[in-house]
Specification:
Blueprint (H helix, E strand, L loop, with lengths): L1 H7 L8 E6 L7 E7 L7 E6 L7 H21 L4 H4 L13 E2 L5 E6 L13 H17 L17 H14 L9 H8 L2 H12 L6 E3 L8 E3 L5 E4 L6 E3 L1 H12 L17 H15 L5 H27 L12 H18 L1 H20 L1
Helix pairs in contact: 4-8, 4-9, 5-10, 8-9, 8-10, 9-12, 10-11, 10-12
């Protein structure tokens, strides 16, 4: 506790820290809440950033600073509350947005947004719709942000990069698992060219560069007590990339009727109802600026991101389970098969997904004209 108090003393806090306690599960970063003694003072979130995943934390924090400042200007211009509708970074007394301690660990502080609701799963159509609206609004407010951001996760959602990693892993076969996985390897190889084509279109400039969140699960959106989207949080992964990445990963997360690592494949599939609801919410905020190429590839982006996850889970299994945390010797193989079942469900419903996107886009445009 004394060490944590010493760390917080480096930041420009309003009020006196009274308690510092863990908050949430902290799979990547260690997250704590700072409760202040004075009733009128805000509380804060203290995080120790994972320097093994985020290898350039100063650049990451600069990305977040620039994005949140842009968001706050938009929120003020629309009469909103910038302290509640966007993350607020707290600087150190040296005007930096991180503190590096004597053990080379990086710490950051943000203002805690109180009186909010967070959900762990988008298990109803309405919640999926609101989640889509939240990510769509985030992208819409940043649609005119044209400054380049530092790429703090090189290769993230880059299919060319992932397939190069895959080829290297297959060549090395470091733990001798390749021979027993001919069927699973064919899942990857049979779709290689189809999936790479989307990334090639991005490389050719046919799909524009956007500011993307890259971690669009529902618990990264805060809601107010009326169930309305308030704020998108956890901006560590904010990058320049395709807006399709955010849409596709959200569908992979929201619309799966089973778990990401569900051993019972009968439970796994894509819910068309959740897909429609998320798409409706997303396009309600983005229809005004998405290009034709982006709209044409929205449905496919769900297949693209799910395929990428099949590839990454299987690649980690082939490599000896070094990247993802596992709870059993075949955990990554279970994940691979569950995500592949989800991909197959998406492929079977792809025409329905495309028609849904077209319908919801037309509906969103017609509402804009009214």
């Amino acid at each position: 506790m004394d060490q944590l108090r010493e760390i917080t003393a480096h930041f420009q806090l309003e009020g006196t820290p009274q308690t510092i306690e863990p908050l949430g599960e902290g799979f990547i970063n260690d997250t704590l809440i700072i409760t202040t003694a004075e009733p009128e003072a805000p509380n804060y979130i203290l995080q120790r950033k994972n320097k093994h995943i985020f290898t350039d934390i100063p650049a990451m924090m600069e990305n977040i600073r620039r994005v949140t400042e842009h968001l706050k200007k938009k929120i003020v211009a629309h009469g909103g509350d910038p302290l509640r509708e966007a993350m607020t970074l707290i600087p150190t007394h040296d005007e930096a947005y991180y503190f590096r301690d004597a053990t080379d660990e990086y710490w950051t502080v943000t203002r805690f947004i109180d009186d909010t609701i967070a959900y762990q799963q988008a298990d109803t159509p309405e919640l999926a719709r609101q989640g889509g609206r939240g990510i769509g609004l985030f992208q819409a407010m940043l649609a005119d942000f044209t400054e380049p951001l530092t790429d703090i996760l090189p290769g993230f959602h880059n299919m060319r990069f992932r397939l190069d990693q895959w080829d290297d892993t297959l060549r090395r076969d470091p733990v001798g698992r390749k021979r027993a996985l001919a069927r699973e390897i064919d899942w990857i190889e049979s779709r290689r060219d189809q999936m790479l084509e989307l990334w090639k279109a991005y490389e050719r400039g046919e799909i524009p560069v956007r500011v993307t969140h890259n971690d669009t699960k529902i618990n990264n959106i805060l809601f107010d007590r009326n169930g309305e989207v308030l704020c998108v949080i956890d901006l560590d992964t904010v990058l320049n990339s395709m807006c399709l990445n955010d849409f596709g990963d959200a569908i992979r997360s929201y619309a799966n009727t089973g778990r990401e690592d569900d051993p019972d494949l009968a439970r796994v599939g894509m819910s068309p109802e959740i897909f429609r609801s998320y798409t409706e919410g997303y396009l309600s905020q983005t229809a005004s600026f998405l290009t034709e190429a982006e709209r044409e590839n929205l449905a496919f982006s769900a297949l693209y991101i799910t395929y990428e996850q099949v590839l990454r889970f299987l690649m980690d299994y082939l490599d000896g389970d070094h990247y993802y945390r596992t709870t059993s010797p075949d955990h990554n193989l279970v994940r691979t098969r569950a995500q592949y079942k989800l991909l197959q469900s998406m492929e079977a419903q792809y025409d329905i997904m495309r028609r849904t996107v077209d319908h919801e886009y037309k509906q969103a445009k017609s509402r804009t004209k009214c």
